[in-house]
Structures
1.
Amino acid sequence: MSDLSLRSAFAVLLKRDLVLAYRRRAEIANPLLFFILITALFPLGLGSNKPMLQAVGPGVIWVAALLAALLSLDGMFRSDFEDGSLEQLMLSSHPVSLLVVAKISAHWLVTGLPLVVVAPLLGVLLSLPGDAIAVLVLTLLLGTPILSLIGAVGVALTVGLRRGGIILSLLVLPLYVPVLIFASDAVSTAAAGIPITAQLYIIGAMLVLALSLAPLATAASLRVSLS
Amino acid sequence: MTPRRKKRLYLVLIILAGIGTATGLALTAFDENLMFFYSPTEVRAGKAPTDHPFRLGGLVTEGSVERQADGLTVRFELTDTQEAVTVQYTGILPDLFREGQGIVSKGRLGADGVFVADEVLAKHDENYMPPEVADALKTAHEQGVQGTQAKTAVQ
Amino acid sequence: MPELAAELLECERNGRVLFSGLGFSLQPGQILMLEGRNGSGKTSLLRILCGIRLPDAGLVSWGGEDIFKLGPDYHEHVSYVGHRDGVKQDLTPRENLRIARAMGKPNPDVEIEDVLEFFDLYDLDDVPTRTLSAGQQRRLALGRLLVTRATLWLLDEPFTSLDRHGIDRFEKLMQEHGEAGGMVALTTHHRVALPDTKRINLSS
Amino acid sequence: MFMRWFHELGSPPYFYRFAGRLIPWLGGLCLVLLVTGLYLGLIVAPSDYQQGESYRIIYIHVPSAWMSLFIYVVMAACGAIALIWRMKLAEVVAISSAPVGASFTFLALVTGSLWGKPMWGTWWVWDARLTSELLLLFLYLGVIALYSAIEDKRQAARAASILAIVGVVNIPLIHYSVEWWNTLHQGPTVTKFDAPSIDVRMLVPLLIMALAFKLFYIVNMLMRARCELLSRERNSRWVAELAEADHG
């Protein structure tokens, strides 16, 4: 009985955030446009020297993905904090750390998944070889949920602050660095035609670790921020 | 057990399982090739990229360092005691560069099998000792090697 | 039904002690009014009772157990309406209530339609909450109290933006909740005509 | 007995007085060790068979790097205590440790860079050890920034504690990076399981310096903690009494 109601609470919350995102779809599109624009700036700024673009491409796309994720984070808890829904979430009769997973999933579906979808296009713009594009998509698929999970902790810590944005990036970006290193390394290694299973294992390990610890840390941080 | 305790226990178990899985994945990754540089053996075996810059690490082979006429370009062999790769570098070498020393160099592998480096870094080891001790150790080691050889010969 | 008890509560904000050594208990059927000047810590006390805010010292217990240890097991008995309504502006009143119901322990005896009806929101149930007036939004927030089986209502200035009719109606609702064995703790500046209320003044 | 002492130490006025009495002693000892360590390390110890005189920077670099990790772990542990048992003093110790730890991390990075240029041939290289140590600096700065951004200091301390605990995942990464990856940075010397591969005349000054740095941290942290306590408890009776005694 309680499992059933937990599952329905999870589903209701997930659906709520998706519906809200849909009703504000213009805002949701912003990080995605930002991602595409930032990546497009590099060929414009560096000149369309193909080998060079190939060399910097994986790093550029991943840095852009990082910044786009950072930009989208604020939306995860800010409006809930301002209208009081976050207090209500904390007072739910279900464990907060599980409800937080619903919110993070919604955030990823709305902001992370689109990045994965448009990534091949950007790979083509930066003239990455086909294998590298496939790996790019794979690393983004594994890596962007980590960004949402770690980001949730950062937003939860800064949600009560009036100018939390700068601090948020100071807290979150260092924690993003390992993802960036291994993911862009995997893509450029794949471009060189070398097996990348090791990097994928590492990213997988980070994902599992973030999945099991970040929700707890987020719930604890929200508790602190609301008190 | 109260339902609350039970729930908490499940949660702890899930988290522990998560951490365990993560560790397992990470350890699997370390069994694969995840490294800062390639060794000469791997280069010889064709594991290093051909049209991509990479790092090559190894020991400078004794007696292999030759300076070109321009005084800046150096050629030397890097070895991991199994295989060796010839490295060519133009520029100023670090203090610690000498024969027998560990080196990490970054560059590309040419079609002729020569590694053209655009950066040479000297990797020093974790041993610290005064020169006289190092000498003494070296002699002792050589004697030790001779000793074992003598033993083998006797047997 | 368990009772809510507070022992030696202390609360400080930015190094200033708002109250300390505060103790009281709330039995089923009782209504507790928290009084005091602005900034005397009424809202902080309510949030401590909710379990959102940690007291700097002391203990709040529900049926003899620390509410912070009980966590969600305590929250299934609690419904809180704070300064901020806690409704999503882009969702309709009906959607808002459906979410509130799923977050707590749903009350099977109450239909969402009845709640909307009771708070005069029935005709507005398919427009975004953003288009509702402040008083209507407040009524929607109060509607949350009915959709779950919460017995303890914690209300921070529940009468804000309500008209005379709404106030009377809600007073009556609180009274009925008390008669049915529920408990209410509220802060308000309105003179409330409720029998059998307990009062705590934080300013004295 | 011990628990009672521990509990007493947890009360701010007691800790304030206790730390006040401890500081001059520890500070003096720290100074003596620092001078001895530097004298032995820079003048008495022999030069290295490979690196000559340049290796002497280990007397600053290695203890700073150790302290950067040690202080982070202390900070996170105090943070955990502060979160679980809501102990005021643990909050204060955690938050007072952060600036000292950040300074040591910075010092380790700078001295490492100074060492790297002549030895490796580069000021900086993005290998695992160096990158993860740089991340540690950012983690420290994040903790400090978060703490100062939140107005209510108790809330701030708890938020900073959570961040510190989250950042702990970086610590094993730094420590084991030289073993897990083929880094440019050399492997551990003193802490490896078999006998340290360093001459004893070089090891002794290193250990003395390490102890001196540890004492420096404790003294500095205690001084900061005293200030923090005074500013947090400025409205309490014991601070008022203290101020009165000072004036009178």
2.
Amino acid sequence: MTKLLEVEGLAKNFGGLQVSADISMTLNAGDRCALIGPNGAGKTTFVNLVTGVIPPSAGTIRLAGRDITRLPAAERVRLGLIRSFQVARLFKSMTVREHLELAVLQRDRRTFRLFASVGKVAGLADEVAGLLDTMGLTQAAHTAVGSLAYGQQRLLEIALALAMKPKVLILDEPAAGVPHSESQRILDAIDRLPEDLAVLMIEHDMDLVFRFARTIVVLAQGRLLCSGTAKEIVADPRVREVYLGSRADAR
Amino acid sequence: METMFGIAVDGVAYGMILFIISVGLSVTLGLMRVVNLAHGAFAMVGGYVASYAAQTAGLSYGLALVVAVALTVLATLPLERLLYRRIYGSANELAQVLLTIGLTFVIVAGINYLFGPTLKRIPLPEMLTGTVELGPKAIPTHRAFVIAAGAATLLGLWWLLERTDFGIRLRAAVDDPAMAAALGIRTERLYLATFALGTGLAALGGVLGAELLPLEPYYAIRYIVLFLAVVAVGGAGSIFGSAAAALALGIVDTAGKYLIPNFGEFFFYAALILILFRWPHGFFKGRAA
Amino acid sequence: ATIKVGVVAPFSGPFGVAGKTFREAIEVYQAQHGKTVGNDTVEFVYKDLDQANPAQSKALSQELIVKEKVSFLAGYFFTPDALAVAPLIDEANIPCVIFNAATSAITEKSPRYVRTSFTLWQNTVPLAEYMAKQGIKKAVSAVSDYGPGLDGEAAFKTTFEKHGGTVVDSIRMPLKSTDFAPFMQRIKDSGAEAVYAFLPAGPTTLAFTKAFSDTGLKAAGIKFFGPGDLTQEPDLPALGDAALGVTTSFNYSRAHDSAMNKAFVAKHKEMFGSTDTVTFSSVGAYDGVHVIYQMIKNGGGGKIDGAKAVESVKGMSWESPRGPLTIDPDSRHVTQTIYLRTVEKVDGKLENVEKEAFPKQPDYGYKVAK
Amino acid sequence: MTSVAERPDPMSDPVSRHTPPAARRDLGWIGIPLVAAVGLAAYWLLPDDLALLTRIAASALFVLSLDLVLGYGGIATLGQAAMFGTGAYAAGIVAVNWINDPFAMLAAGGIAGGGIALATGALILHARGLTLLMLTIAVGQIVQEVANKARDWTGGSDGLSGIDPAPVLGLFRFDMFGRTSYLFALAVLVAGLLVARRIMRSPFGLACRGVREDPLRISAIGGSPKSYLVALYAVAGVFAGVAGALTAVTSGIVGLDSAGFPWSAEALVMLVLGGTGRLYGAVIGTAAFMGIHHILAASDPFHWMGFIGLFLIGIVLFLPGGIASGLERLGGLLRRKEDRA
Amino acid sequence: MPAEPVGSLEVVELRAGYGKTLILDGISFAVPTGGRLALLGRNGVGKTTTLATLVGQTTRHGGGMKLDGVELGGMNSSGRAAAGLGYVPQTRDIFKSLTVEENLVAGLKGRPRSALEEAYALFPRLGERRRNGGGELSGGEQQMLSVARALLGKPTVLLLDEPLEGLAPVICDTLMAALSKLDMTIVLVEQQVDRALDFADRVVFLDRGRVVHAGPAAQAKADPALLERHLGVALAA
Ligand SMILES: Nc1ncnc2c1ncn2[C@@H]1O[C@H](COP(=O)(O)OP(=O)(O)OP(=O)(O)O)[C@@H](O)[C@H]1O
Ligand SMILES: Nc1ncnc2c1ncn2[C@@H]1O[C@H](COP(=O)(O)OP(=O)(O)OP(=O)(O)O)[C@@H](O)[C@H]1O
Ligand SMILES: [Mg+2]
Ligand SMILES: [Mg+2]
């Protein structure tokens, strides 16, 4: 099994506040891992550290064996480390279609073509159509994102991540604001991804977590609390106390 | 040594005058997110009113100052209702630029028409003429007065915006007007009050600074870049930032002009670039950031 | 027939006063001398050029020639604006009478330029000589950092040092300076007995003069000289007592004591209600119109041939409100009397009171290699 | 006014919101031939005003360059004249000292404008909003000051005169009546519009729009916002430089004002007046502003400023998206009527 | 307005949208004083728009809404808030440039600052972060802040747009328990259908801007077919 993402001793302080402390974990090709934990446990911070949005106070991050701790965010994206945002973060006046076109062009480094026409870039239209279909956004293709319902914005957020053809895909609460009927779409899309990439999902919707994850990692107060299969996690009293509450019984 | 001291004193004095004129812009720009290019015009209106009040109506300097601030605020409040209200919000930035430039043009033309193109002055009272000794350096009394007024303005504003509920509500209304309104904050009144604060400060600065930035119809356009520089370096909306920036720029400018007068302009703008390179959000990261 | 004269000048913007003085002077001249020359009616067409902008100057002048079919171009407050029309007046063969732009080099660029204003050299040379004669040994020059300022600096240095003085510091100040305290400090530190200063008329001269007295240089006995732009009449009321005692050299003062000037000022007052705006640029325009009238007269009516018209006024002499004038046949610039004036209160009003006169001063800057 | 500063508000512009993008693009397509047609018509209809028209055409190209950075990149700048001035001086210096072919002058201007934009852009484009605005002003002032100090090359404040461009293609002399100048300027403007349109519909243009909306999101898909902005700034610098060179060719003189702050500010006003992000909005705005200025300044030079001020205020209040948006709205209305008929 | 507002809400044939675009096409429902209504429906059917219309953030095209018999249509947002509406928007709308404490102060509606302790008691996490900037909070913390801010204004009618989104299940428990204890009229939009139905006494289903079903919550909960039809899901067994 190839180790895609290795994190060692990662830590982050904001001023005096320790938000992440000594986090180590590994994602292998084919992993479907969920990261859960109470609010403010440091999950988004962890994603921000791994993707290079903020610099860590300590620790190293390796992607497919290469040390990327000091690489800028965009560089990591180009290496295949892709994330989606917890709160949809999109270009309000651009259409859904333009988003995907941009993502695909960017991925292929074809954005510095000054005199080509977007409509005529080979293969672009087909790929975008495929992505739209996958996330059920074909209808909305020409809608400006500013006037899209929030749930659809979430779907587009995922579609963008998929468009990047990730090696490691990190989804920060992909289903927040998406009703159950639609969340299945997200899972379907993830299922259709090539087996050999690793997916890490942060989610508070336990149904989704259990349907998706083969392993679950629990973070609390910036530290790894435990990890294991869904069964093991649900059975862990510490997890029940800090996180699951009544939901543990709903299972 | 003595020279350095002289430069420092001159720089601080100049800086304080810059502060007093620019801080109103920082308030409107940082807190209301209005790129109010008519700020210089309001300052000028204040100056003209004071000049008229002192020279033609024969009021004392202090009284003329009060009248100028009050009249300027009163005269500009309808503008808030009729014009500014339509362009609040960062999204309207270009409209703001266009509208406030248009307004500036109208005010310039109006002042030109009413008072003519020649320079106007606000006679200083006996008390403020002459010089005060500051160690080996003599500075004009008027400048010392401006420094004191600037310090008072600084503290008052800081307290108002950071420590009172008014300040909090105002900043909330600026951050997200729709949400603030949904929480029961009367955003329109707040904006009106803040606008009045901004123009009042502009008028105050126009009057106090008239010795350095002489009053003439193109005052409104001539110095706006200088004011913007102070606000940018200080961080829009930050009161202490504006003060720090004004002092820093005042000292840099003074030192540059003294040491290498032939390249004074270079020096000032090069320093500006360096500062903004180091602190891209201004000394005190602006509220709007 | 109608002969049109196109006037390009700032009528709006920060320098709007200049255009206003031009226009008023032209109207005074026409009121005094009539609108006709022989059978021709002289009509003035105005174009607004609010700031130094040579490309725009050229476009406006071109429009005057092509659309308005003017026979003369006139006005031009700033040097670059005047320089811009050189190719045009040559191609169209039209005389161009400059009412103000003061850099010496302009008239070298086309034989069709005639200038009725002054140059920095012309004003500065007699002043520097005077300063040297007063026994001043060490002086500082402080000028705005642009063409005319540099002319003034060069004229001062050359002349003052030729007469035995030393220029201990030559300060060039950014045009847009607002705070002059640091320059004052520098002047003080230089140990000079006197300062020669030139800044373009407007808010900066005010701030400079104020700073000079505020920072105690005046009290310290340092003498303040400069070309008359520093104390131009429209600025005097705002300068107030800070200006008292400033000595300048200039080609015109509103207070000039001559019958002709009294008539001019009186007519101005009659027509426009006040004499506040009567200043150096007024006579530049007034005399410019006189030259234009003369060219029309010399041409004997009908179409104007630019080259011949200019030829016809070379060496022409006449009496103007500012005193006797002659057009130097070489430089086509007026040779005139330069007056030494001091600001004093006359009937409660500040005036530039003439103290000495230096007659027949040519443009010393013409063809001075730079 | 920092991070969200330059985004045009979709809400304030109801037309762009509800017209499908395709329709808007179509109008853009009519825009360029229309500019060419109106420009040619003006040549016949207003033969005495070619001096003004030439200045409008050259200025429109400059404003167009500003539209590239502002309308498509969201870079609010008050220093665009630095590129214009550099281009103008470069063209002038080349013409005075070496070669006075008008196309060579344009090329020199474009290279100089693009070069200075690239150099300064790399230095300042990390900033946004007010800070960036100040930085652009500072760069503009420094460029102007350099031009002032380099008197030997630029003539300093007297201006660089004596530029005498050779006939276009060796055939058409630049005459006093301005015929050649005007047609030359119009041709360059139309070519500029075509190239700009091409660039903005390219993948690069798409990426720039993304950067304008949310630079952070661009880095999250692997792009470097700054490199797009610098590239865009440089491209716009080429346009501005060519515009400056065009002014040098057609007027034969370059002054310090061409790199000055007022010229940058005026360009911004003209652009916003016309409407940003449309390219031809730049042309409309320039023609409207300069035309109105010309008429007002001729009829009442003392007070034109007041009138133009009122006009600007009126535009903001009644045509928030600029004149072009008003035209689009009109176009939309007409089309709807047609549909109904 | 009656001396003591009690909080009954009535919506009649409400038509509203954004600018000229119409989203709500004639919506009617009523909540009695102290009633709890769950407003459910798929993505984009207009739930958020309904709440936003109630607080006055959209363009109303027709119909009316009354709070204790007083028509709200003519009032602006702040007037409605003064009349007793409290709002927790879906996007949370934290004042990013204000600290946590200042965010809460902005919601006080004139109550003394000592009232802030109520918020810290409900969500201790907020107390720990009171000096942090609103923008620095984690997603869930922002959600807590938004709810707490609305509660501090002591509204008579509380409008909640997906308040559980992004909250850890334990916090969801706490919050739902706290909401259950509140003595106010509540309209709840929520994706966690089971929790919403447990909480509410009545339910309204929306589809494409219209009410497609209204009835008791318990009945809806017991009718998987109904849920399947309007939401496309069956509840987890
Ligand atoms: N820039 C910052 N400055 C100070 N504190 C911060 C900053 N960013 C995050 N924090 C704090 O760090 C903690 C962890 O935040 P993070 O966003 O990682 O939580 P999370 O696990 O994603 O929570 P949630 O599930 O609520 O989204 C929070 O308590 C937050 O207040
Ligand atoms: N600002 C807006 N401008 C124009 N249309 C909008 C705007 N916001 C939402 N819409 C449209 O209004 C419709 C209803 O959206 P609304 O946000 O009310 O849905 P919702 O039921 O809350 O969905 P979700 O479950 O995704 O939050 C959608 O079709 C959406 O595209
Ligand atoms: Mg999070
Ligand atoms: Mg919603």
